[in-house]
Amino acid sequence: MKRMGTLRLLSDLSHFSGAARLRELLAGDPAVRVRCSPDGRHLLLLRPPGAPSPQLLVAVRGPGAELERAWPAGHPPPLDAFFLPWPARPALVLVWESGLTEVWGAGVGPGWQLLRSTELCPGGGARVVAVAAPRGRLVWCEERQDGAEGWLGPPPAFSHYVCVRTLEPSGEAGTNLGPTHILLHHCPSFGLLASRKDLFLVPTATTWPGVSHILLIWSPGKAKVMVAAPCLGLSHSKSLNPGRGDTWDFRTLLRGLPGLLCPMKPLTVHTWAPTPQGLLLLDFRGTVSLVQSHGGTRAVGTLQEAPVGLAGSAALGTFHGTLACVLGSTLELLDMGSGQLLERKVLSTDRVHLLAPPAPGMEDKEELETRGGLRLLSALGLFRVGWEAPQGLEVPSAEDLVFEEACEYYQRRSLRGAQLNPEELRHNSTFRAPQALASILQGHVSPSTLLTTLRAELRDYRALDQLKAHLVAGDEEEAGWTELAEHEVARLLRTELVGDQLAQLNTVFQALPTAAWGAILRALQLQPDGNGRLRSHAPPDVWKKVLGGTSAGKESPNGILPLFELLCQCLCRLEPRWLPPFVELAQQQGGPGWGAGGPGLPLYRRALAVLGEEGTRSEALELELLLGSGRPKAVLQAVGQLVQKEQWERALEAGLALSPSSPLLRSEIFKLLLAEFARHRRLDAYLPLLCRLCPPDLAPAELLLLLRTHLPDELEPPTPFPEPGTEPPLSVGLLRALLEQTGAKGRPSGPVLSLYEDILWDPGTPPPTPPRGPVTTLQASDHAGLEAWAPSGQGLYVTDTG
What we know:
Layout: E1 4-11, H1 19-28, E2 33-36, E3 42-46, E4 56-60, E5 67-69, E6 80-84, E7 91-95, E8 100-106, E9 112-119, E10 126-132, E11 137-144, E12 160-170, E13 174-177, E14 181-187, E15 190-194, E16 199-203, E17 215-219, E18 224-229, E19 234-239, E20 248-249, H2 250-255, E21 269-275, E22 278-283, E23 287-291, E24 297-302, E25 314-319, E26 322-327, E27 330-335, E28 341-346, E29 353-355, H3 365-369, E30 374-378, E31 381-388, H4 398-413, H5 422-427, H6 433-441, H7 447-473, H8 477-493, H9 500-511, H10 513-524, E32 526-528, E33 534-536, H11 540-547, H12 563-574, H13 579-588, E34 590-591, E35 594-595, H14 603-611, H15 619-628, H16 632-644, H17 648-656, H18 663-679, H19 687-693, H20 700-710, H21 732-742, E36 775-777, E37 797-799
Parallel strand pairs: 14-20
Antiparallel strand pairs: 1-31, 2-3, 3-4, 4-5, 6-7, 7-8, 8-9, 10-11, 11-12, 12-13, 12-14, 15-16, 16-17, 17-18, 18-19, 21-22, 22-23, 23-24, 25-26, 26-27, 27-28, 29-30, 30-31, 32-33, 34-35, 36-37
Helix pairs in contact: 4-6, 7-8, 8-9, 8-10, 9-10, 10-12, 12-14, 13-15, 14-15, 15-16, 16-17, 16-18, 17-18, 17-19, 18-20, 19-21
Domain BLOC-2 complex member HPS6 C-terminal: 400-772
Protein name: Hermansky-Pudlak syndrome 6 protein homolog
Subcellular location: Microsome membrane
């Protein structure tokens, strides 16, 4: 059913102070400049130079004082005037061409008071040609005098500077003006247009033709400037943060951006209009285009009528995906997605001004009621243009929406095949929650009881709504997004993490991983214990939600990861060293059907799957996960990898770290390392650790049999000393320490169990030494019988015992 665009009268201006003067200025001067305050209560009208007094009028809706200013001949009126988005009180800033700046405020005394006056160009050698007041800043483009020539000749093409100063409230009636920072120097003349997040520097009629096809977009929240050429479809981004002292010479900036200086016709723009979506521009053919903050340009649509010359008035605005354009006395509404003309209205006057919508979070009660449309101001009154549902369209009641939503929720959790319907929920006492909520909405619960029940929730929602308003306004974007992500993760953790909720949680972790992990830290109450491990005081229900879900053995639909895999992936990106302690902590949690003891893949395997395929994983993380898993196969796999890398000490420590309740696993690790001990001598330095790892029930015979199995084959007869450059074989001296370890519990009583066991048990005291006499040399002739004991030509020394 087609919706209808409507114009609704909000006020005939009689509610504004000085209503007669307000109507007079709106009806009599087509060139009057109109601004609206952030809260929507104040209207500012600034007339061009030469207009009769008053040149400045500030009218207020409801209680409050108006402000009228007039300047005599020879004292030009301000170049421009802006309302400041100060929540405590209404304030405005006036800027003259000479650089004189005045800040006025209301609410600190009777009427409007001058809060501060300053000079933007204190040297007197410059004049301001354009000014804008984005949130918390004052930005102006000034033309500086070139040497001693003064202003007599034509000004140089690049004699302008773009400067910025912070402008913030201070106390009851004070203002803080920061120091001047130069954003651009040696640049052409630029017009300045500010949206809530960005500042647009657009060419003017006096801009040098060679660069009049270029515009700049400064995003203070992102600390960068975008140089764009809409007619070429090119854009380049550069860093620009005045807080760090960044500044750019415009000529140097363009020389470093290829393609932007191609000979092009100047931009022929009739009207510029900043919007939350970007910068709208209307050319003389009636085509409306949108320049977005990233520099891209797209056509929005074409009006039924094109503007006739510069004299015709035009105004552009957007609401609910709709472009509104007032061209003369015609209002056209176009769909911003397709460019289709939705509606065209003929107005009763051609002097119509589109007002910017109030800043989020600063609307009063009346503005909240008219949210969702654009406001048109003329001498006839203040109107709202928006979409309204046609008559006869039935809107479901709040109670119906409750039961329909409950049906969808319970159907997802139900195992039965029958379809639930709202009528069944209304009369079935099984589902009490929707009935309770419906009774609250119907007013069956007293307001005090309802307020007590929902006080905490309302406080959270209000804080969240204020936070979103600050984000839309561009205040402290980084901190705001972090807080918003923490709120969202905490909310999702209180829901059933399936379907859309799990997909949304994945999106938050991908966009803001640091903030999302901070929320998880608080939910799980994770703290390091000082020994490289983590501890948690979270209740089992929270861990059940973390460890549940689809196991990593199956392909996740659309790349959506379960919560445990999502946390592992996030840790890999932020703090990889904490991944093994986190998995080890998770393995200590558990319950029937979930956690470390549940069915499906063990947690260390799920964590390994997040690291990627084998061969592409981080070897250090894989080793830590395998060693901390407590699974025999995983630990043996890790020790095998350590052996391959010849990290002997770590392999031995991995075996010693196992508790005595795992004797079989320790025995397997010992046998694996004993085989390496038999093959080469690179483990000799770690023999004490190997002895500690030796199973206490291993007999010496079993030890020698294990060694014999892994001893290398001897291809040549043994020699008493190894050849130079070859590795020495296993010696009895090295073997003795292991053999002693196998009998460390004392010599058993009874018969000898092994042929080798007696060598381990000596009495500890050597036999007595026989008496020794003088040493003589035996001659072969004296003892012919000894010749058989000594080779020819050699003598043997023996002891003569008489």
